[in-house]
User: Fold this.
Amino acid sequence: MLLVIVAACQARDENPTRNSNAGIDLAAYEIVDLTHALNEQTIFWPTSPTTFKLDRLAYGPTPGGYFYSANAFSMPEHGGTHLDAPIHFAEGAHTTDAIPLDRLVAPAVVIDVTERAGADPDYRLSAADVEAWEGEHGRIPNGAMVLLRTGWSQRWPDRKSYLGDDTRGDASKLRFPSYGEDAARVLVEQRRVVALGADVASIDYGRSTDFLVHRVAAAANVPGLENLTALDRLPATGATVIALPIKIEGGSGGPVRVIALVPRAR
Ligand SMILES: [Zn+2]
Assistant:
């Protein structure tokens, strides 16, 4: 009996994929950055009071003979590649620090509407689009994160092209595609997705004035990921996304580094 147990233990140790101490086999994945860098060009909502600012505090040799650099940065929560915490549009919903981590680390499904959005900048993903996608790729599982690919990230950082209008202080003339309300309801209320992301400035389309997609998502404590990039490098299914915002206590959102683990072809 003892021999059997010893043999079983040895067999386990010899197979690294079964050794729980080995962790994730990262060599099996390509790590893709879905984040725009923060800089002076970073796009914010037209009504944002300020943008991204980096002030140099130190850069150069010190009297001690070593090099030292440090900066101070400031920005509104909602600009560049960022997270919308549910409280952004729902009183009492999760703040940035309170979002459960399994809503920010999840399998991703990518819905590609680049062709339709290219033909119509007011394009909104519909419930029928979601069903058509599922007809091809299978039902979107509970707990997935949905990423909407419109192709708009190619326009970054040209504000006029990306937002449809570059009038500062006026958000009434924006034009870009995104989710429609009926698609959001299917995804949030029926498929129970954990987050809605998009490669545009908002999970509501540019002409929205009632922000229904934000409200549907926020009411279900589903966070948003906005201004994503490089979604063309993800498969429709099979990637795992890690989207960790800085942990602002009580925050309504915040800058986020979003990466995807994409299985390498074997
Ligand atoms: Zn936002």
Remarks:
- The chain has six helices and twelve strands.
- The pocket of zinc ion is lined by residues 78, 82, 84, 226, 253 (CB under 6 Å).
- Residues 1-16 have pLDDT under 50 and may be disordered.
